[in-house]
Amino acid sequence: MDSYGWRFVLLLLAVVVTSATGRDLRTRFATQLNGDELREMVGSAAALRHEAFVPAKRHDNSDYNSNDYNNNYFNRDFKHFDNSLLIRDNGAALVALSLHNLLVPRVSGSEANANVRNHIVTVFKALQWSVEIDAFDSETPHGKLPFANIVATKNSNAKHKLVLAAHYDSKFFDGKDFIGATDSAIPCAILIAIAHAINPLLEAQDLLARTTVQFIFFDGEEAFVNWSATDSLYGSRHLAEKWETLAADGSTIPSFSSSTKSSQSSNKKKSILKSIDAFILLDLLGDPTSTFINLNSKTTWIWERLVNIEQRLASLQLLSPQKSELVNVQNEVAYFVPGISTFGSQAIDDDHRPFRDRGVPIVHVIAVPFPKTWHTLNDDSDHVNPNTASDLARIFTVLVVEYLGLLV
Ligand SMILES: [Zn+2]
Predict the structure, then answer these.
(1) Cα separations (Å) of 198 from 129, 165, 202, 318?
(2) I need a surface site. Which of 18, 145, 168, 179 has the fewest CB within 10 A?
(3) One Pfam family of this protein, by short name (predicted)?
């Protein structure tokens, strides 16, 4: 993600939030869970436990956030993971393992990047999701390099998809280990947590279900040198362009610009892009002080549901204690600011852009202001809060469950 327009964003922050549109928030969601169902959902999903997101220190095992849970798991190599522990703690252990595997420098084209990719693929294959690797080469300021996006889908027969995405590469820092915890190891771990939490519900879903959920892990989001149209967003630019002219059955369909919508009706086959109901991009998550503003007026109906879920979970004390109190007692926002920001969807450049420019409805969830650690060596496990990651995983899990109508 890039910072152009950033100072402008800061200046306007205090005055841009306007009132919500008053649209009926329930119309496009299949269901809304009641209090007992929310408790059941959050309580039964081990992956949503706060402990699942406590990051390990890579170099100093003695300095873990010490409790038995973490000490039991973080010293283990994924290959040697004890199956009995895995069964007992289900998703939480796997998310903890994912975070451990993700919190490493993972620059596109490197061996570590491939290791992280393999880890994510292993996680989703174990859950029996369809996994597609979108591999390609691209010229970069560092020469021609290989990239590979990961696309994981539970029910690839569904005609409509709710997409959640994050980037798994980390920014290149010459000679230094940049971890990129918020950028975007934590967002990737949140996606993995959601997958673990909803997987049993998806398995029980009708195979003929109209709508499913898809996770995209982008490679090559970061610029190698300076953020520009050609040095950034390698993975999302490639996938959006490919999906614009590709149908779900693998056939090619004619390209048309998003501005000539009248031509769509003459195409019998829909591009894969047209099967995306909404594309939710997570970036720069995990800093405990972050809040998020609605940058996309077209998807306010989703944003207002996020606001609503935050309030419902807080009222049931199902967010972390500090955030629940913030909402319940101080009547403040924990994460999602209501209303619509006038920054617009162009203010912050990110992996959503190639999709937005082709007409895909976007929800851009990114910390505004950016975390203080952004693109510094401090964007590491010391500067993220497991409660924040857990709270956000819970909120997005409920969003997906309610959108797809997955009953507890
Ligand atoms: Zn970045």
Answers:
(1) 12, 16, 6, 17
(2) 18
(3) Peptidase_M28
Give catalytic residue positions: 221, 283
Which residue in the block uniquely carries the two structure tokens 């973490």? Answer: 70
Secondary structure of residue 260 in the 3-state scheme = coil
Determine the distance separating the centroid of ligand 1 and the alpha carbon of 83, expressed in angstroms. 35
Model confidence over 186-215: pLDDT tens digits?
999 999 999 999 999 998 887 678 899 999
Q: How far, in Å, from the CA of 171 to the mean position of ligand 1? A: 6
C-alpha 352 chain-centroid distance: 11
Which string of DSSP letters, residue by residue, matches 207-242? TT-SEEEEEEEES--S-SSS--SSSS-HHHHHHHHH
Query: If you measure from the C-alpha of residue 379 to the centroid of ligand 1, how many angstroms do you get, rounded to a whole number?
Result: 10
Q: Of 114, 116, 282, 122, nearest to 194 (Cα)?
A: 282
Q: Give, rounded to a whole angstrom, the gap between the first and last alpha carbons of the chain.
A: 36
CA of 377 to the centre of ligand 1 (A): 12
Which residues have a Cβ under 8 Å from the Cβ of 199 and sit 6 or more positions away?
A: 127, 154
pLDDT digits (tens, 9 = 90+) for 139-176: 999 999 999 999 999 988 899 999 999 999 999 999 99
At residue 2 the predicted structure's pLDDT band, cuts being 50, 70 and 90, is low
